[in-house]
Amino acid sequence: MLREDISRLTIQRMVLYHSVLKLMQEEGITVCISKELGRRTGISPHLIRKDLAYFGGFGTKGVGYETDYLFRRIEEILGYDTSWNTVLVGLDMPTVVPIMCYPRLWPEAVKIAAIIDLGKKNQGMAVHNLGLTIESIENIKDIICSRKITIGILAVPPSHAQKTANQLIRAGIKGIVNFSSFPIFAPQDIAITQVNMTSLFSQLTFDLKHVATNDSCS
Q1: pLDDT at residue 13 tops 50
Q2: Torsion-angle region of residue 81: left (phi > 0), alpha (psi -120 to 50) or beta?
Q3: Helix ranges restricted to H, the chain
Q4: Are 193 and 178 contacting, i.e. CB atoms less than 8 angstroms apart?
């Protein structure tokens, strides 16, 4: 379970550190300092050190962090050292799959092991790039148990979100990423991440509306 004194914002920043460290590995950088991490992420070195300190000591004062070691430790903290089998549940999946199964959308540790369509017309259709067939929600219990699936991804209309989440939870799912624009509720032992794309774009359009910018086309 997530320690109560570690905020979700800290976890989000750890994901960013992980991405930057991977790039630094590819560049052959063996030792990194918080100042360089800060330059690449736009986060203050003080906050970076504070974030890392929540999880123990990773570096040497005045020397920095061993890039490979810090990368591996953050992978362990974020759960990327484990393979997470996942079921994608949606409606009209042929339009959903190309977006939701884009390779860089999920961490490498997340594996799409099943695709469920709440509608019937697409069930049985092959998803060739994943080697899967679109299946029915009626078989969700067997699917989750036989493939050791722990995470459910909801890409359903808001009107279907809570009912579908309940079905996944009863079938044994331990965590849900909810892409519907309506919040879902679950027992405390079920991890829920709400992703509201409308809210994300609304923040952007608000800024564009209220922050003065120069018109480069005038």
Answers
A1: yes
A2: alpha
A3: 8-26, 34-41, 45-53, 67-78, 93-100, 140-146, 158-171, 197-210
A4: yes
On the question of pLDDT at 97 being above 60, the answer is yes
CA-to-CA dists, residue 207 to 9, 41, 118, 204, angstroms: 21, 21, 37, 5
Mind listing the domains of the chain with CATH numbers? 8-78 (1.10.10.10), 84-200 (3.40.50.720)
Of 104, 124, 102, the C-alpha closest to 115 is: 124
42-58 pLDDT, tens digit each: 999 999 999 999 888 77
* Partners of residue 88 on adjacent β-strands: 115, 153
Give pLDDT tens digits for 138-169: 999 999 999 999 999 999 999 999 999 999 99
Check if the beta carbon of residue 171 is closer than 8 Å to that of residue 142.
no
**Does residue 79 come out as left (phi exceeding 0), alpha (psi in the -120 to 50 range) or beta?**
left
